[in-house]
Design goal:
- By secondary structure, the protein is α/β, with parallel strands linked by helices.
- Helix content is 34%, strand content 20%.
- Strands 1-8-7-6-5-4-3-2 form an 8-stranded parallel beta sheet.
- The structure holds D-xylitol-5-phosphate and zinc ion.
- The site of zinc ion has 6 residues, from strand 2.
- D-xylitol-5-phosphate binds next to strand 2, strand 8 and helix 7.
């Protein structure tokens, strides 16, 4: 069970310090938004490259951008240890995944709440992670969509049938109140923005979330 705090809810004027606050986490989740695929705009390659030089934990880059075929591999080269593209924006997902692995990163594929996973089951051999969004991508602090839990179960089942080590990530509205249902449904990597950075003690929030997830094993 791994926790990936989202720096979207962190202090953008002090990102190095904000990464240090969560150095007990497994990953640092970096939300890249381009103002096209999602209405919001956050940060891009130069910032990821700079963070990769100072981060105490590996970077988990979540690309909410158009044209991941062109851009995703560059995030791996910039230091993303895991890079996740959205299937809705991808032209050749197999190729993207293989480019990511070729650049030394784990390859993740994300699905928005309205996107079914079933049509993409055949991509599993090319993937290291599937991200099931539990909010509409674009903003932190939104409410958790429990109606995505059947999809988490479906992905976990497909991963189990396929074999190998493919992680199932959830992102959006994950907190002490919602993480257990995600873990129970089959998630094993949990992104949390406001639940971690909104807490007085961010490191303690990470440990608390992990302990709650650990109650459920797959
Ligand atoms: C939303 C982002 C999330 C966001 C989660 O589009 O992908 O990573 O930071 O924030 P919370 O945990 O506050 O819902
Ligand atoms: Zn995210």
């Amino acid at each position: 069970m791994q926790i990936s705090p989202s720096i979207l809810s962190a202090d953008f004027a002090n990102l190095e310090r904000e990464l240090q606050r969560v150095r007990n986490a497994d990953w640092a989740h970096i939300d890249v938004m381009d103002g096209h695929f999602v209405p919001n705009l956050t940060l891009g390659l130069p910032v990821v490259e700079a963070l990769s030089k100072v981060t105490p934990i590996p970077l988990d880059c979540h690309l909410m951008i158009d044209d991941p075929d062109r851009w995703a591999p560059m995030y791996a080269e910039a230091g993303g240890a895991s890079v996740t593209f959205h299937i809705e924006a991808a032209r050749d997902p197999r190729r993207i995944a293989s480019d990511l692995r070729g650049a030394g990163a784990r390859a993740g594929m994300a699905v928005k709440p309205g996107t079914a996973f079933a049509p993409y089951t055949d991509l599993l051999p090319d993937l290291d992670m599937v991200l099931v969004m539990t909010v509409e991508p674009g903003f932190g602090g939104q409410s958790f969509m429990a109606d995505q839990m059947p999809k988490v179960r479906e992905v976990r089942e497909a991963v189990r049938r396929h074999g190998g080590e493919i992680w199932v990530q959830v992102d959006g509205g994950v907190s002490a109140d919602t993480i257990e249902q995600c873990a129970e449904a089959g998630a094993d990597v949990f992104v949390a923005g406001s639940a971690v950075y909104g807490a007085e003690d961010a490191a303690a929030a990470v440990d608390e979330l992990r302990a709650l997830a650990d109650r459920h094993t797959h």
